[in-house]
Amino acid sequence: MAKKQAEVITRFAPSPTGQLHLGHLYAALFARDLARKKGGRFLLRFEDIDTTRVRPHYYSEIESDLHHAGIRWDAPPLRQTTRFPAYQEALNKLKKLDAVYPCFCTRRDIQREIKNLVRAPHGPDGPLYPSTCKALTPQQIEAHLANGHEPAWRLDSERAAKLTGPLTFQDSFLGSVEVNHALLGDIILARKDIGTSYHIAVVVDDAFQNVTDVTRGKDLLESTHIHRILQALFELPEPKYHHHELVCDSKGERLAKRNAAHSLQSLVASGLTPEELIQLAQDSLA
Ligand code: GLU
After folding, report:
1. pLDDT reported for residue 3
2. Taking every annotated instance into account, which residue ranges of this chain make up the domain Glutamyl/glutaminyl-tRNA synthetase class Ib catalytic (predicted)?
3. pLDDT recorded at residue 15
4. Does 240 map to a domain?
5. Whose CA is nearest to atom 10 of ligand 1?
């Protein structure tokens, strides 16, 4: 008997930290249309773990912006703030695997360390964390904890590479992409203040919601390397990826939340119809 194909499930996952702009609209349409084309389901998820930046009114504003553009989702939206215990469990699994280590460095400590190094490791956006705290002894860690220092937890990218072996992910635009375990270095997987990170939350929730196709802007391509590593370590299924083009302003720059002029609300207020909004988003791709 032929194996039944899994139902396609996509999601749009904004953070309620600002108003939606044309870039978000394009991302939401891309995810919705992929699900609709395959007779699947489209979900809305609020990525609200960074409670220091979330503003409560954005939840309903985001929903009404999407509604206005004719976008509907197929289940009540999931809020990541309801999922902290699952992220904690995931972090514990990484601790058991020895795939993370505690880091007590301040930003200033890291800058100083990088300056002192002859060859500091570099990633796509500049210097990477120089793995300073990886060398801490159990006694030093104890001493930090006894002094009330709360650690962040960082990926031990070297150990992760050993644990997972070579990995790839499949992208509808890029084909098969080889995972580079060292691309973002020993990146933070659990922040001191919130105890988790975008990376853990996204991976755990995509699996929890049975997302089969992760659609996101090309600007998040580097993060996908981390996500594949985490999926392998957590033994979660591997979704398909679609890293799409980004909507840009007239100068060719990526839209930013802080620029209110591009918000859907201000475009609607200026008289654009939902159809015109959608057209504008499509016409403004880089
Ligand atoms: N929450 C992420 C963002 O606003 C998108 C989610 C993802 O695809 O990783 O950029």
Report:
1. 61
2. 7-278
3. 97
4. no
5. 14
Q: Give the pLDDT of residue 125.
A: 85
Average pLDDT over residues 265-282: 93
**Mean pLDDT lowest for which of 53-57, 140-144, 224-228, 249-253?**
249-253
List, chain by chain if needed, residues with CB within 6 Å of any ligand 1 atom.
Answer: 13-15, 47, 202, 216, 220
* Residue 88: Cβ-neighbour burial (10 angstroms; 0-12, 13-18, 19+): middle
**Are 92 and 34 in the same domain?**
no
Pairwise CA distance, residues 177 & 199, whole Å: 18
Q: Which residue, by CA, sits nearest to atom 5 of ligand 1?
A: 13
- Name the domain boundary from 172, 202, 232: 202
Cα(117)–Cα(124) distance, integer angstroms: 18
The average pLDDT across 252-263 equals: 77
Give the domain CATH number at 9.
3.40.50.620
What spacing in Å lies between the alpha carbon of 113 and ligand 1's midpoint?
Answer: 31
| CA 219 to ligand 1: nearest atom | 10
